[in-house]
Amino acid sequence: MKSWVKVALVTALFAVPAMALGQVIWPPAPGGPEPTAGQFPFFLFLAVFEALTFGLGISFLLFGFVPLKRALGGSSWRTWAAYLAIGWFLVSWWPHDNMHIHNGSDLQGLLYIEYGFHLTLMVAGLLLAYSLLRPGDAGVQAGGAATARVR
């Protein structure tokens, strides 16, 4: 089976239930705001896109390590840092937005969400940038200019 077919199947296998179960797992907060008819399609688009990125993130976590390791030249810690950061960037949006809907206006819950998602995404971004752009590795010189790679 071709790798893109595997990725598509796994993505659909996780995205479809994620779309269906988001508000079952995290029901909307009682008394929370309701979208207007004009806003609803935009929220629906976000929900579909978040479910798809969740499924794609699962696919990446299942199939992406080896190609990423090859792309990063075999460095173990850089591969793991990039792999986990990219995986988190992809899978985190679905639970994140659903938790916001479920949380309502509870400020303590909002702090948990902000630290659990926003802070970890910032750290993941820093890890990803460092793992890809560390001076002396991956064709980056200390002055910041990239060297040409011949394959």
Task: Please give a handful of descriptors for the protein shown.
151 residues, mainly alpha, 72% helix, globular
Task: Describe the protein's architecture and organization.
The chain has 151 residues and is an all-alpha fold. It has one domain. It is 72% helix and 0% strand. It is built from 6 helices and no strands. The longest helix is centred in the last third of the chain and has 27 residues, at 107-133. The model has no long low-confidence stretch (mean pLDDT 90).
Q: Can you tell me the overall shape? A: globular
User: How many domains is the backbone divided into?
Assistant: 1
Q: What's the number of helices?
A: 6
Mean pLDDT: 90
| Strands, count | 0
- Taken in chain order, the helices and strands follow as HHHHHH
Class by SSE composition = mainly alpha
Give the end-to-end Cα distance, rounded to a whole number of Å.
27 Å
Gyration radius (Cα, Å) is 19 Å
Q: Runs with pLDDT <50, length 5+?
A: none
Q: What percentage of the residues does DSSP assign to strands (E)?
A: under 5%
Measured as a percent range, the helix fraction is over 70%
Query: What about the largest sheet?
Result: none
Q: What is the gist of this entry?
A:
By secondary structure, the protein is mainly α. 72% of the residues lie in helices and 0% in strands.
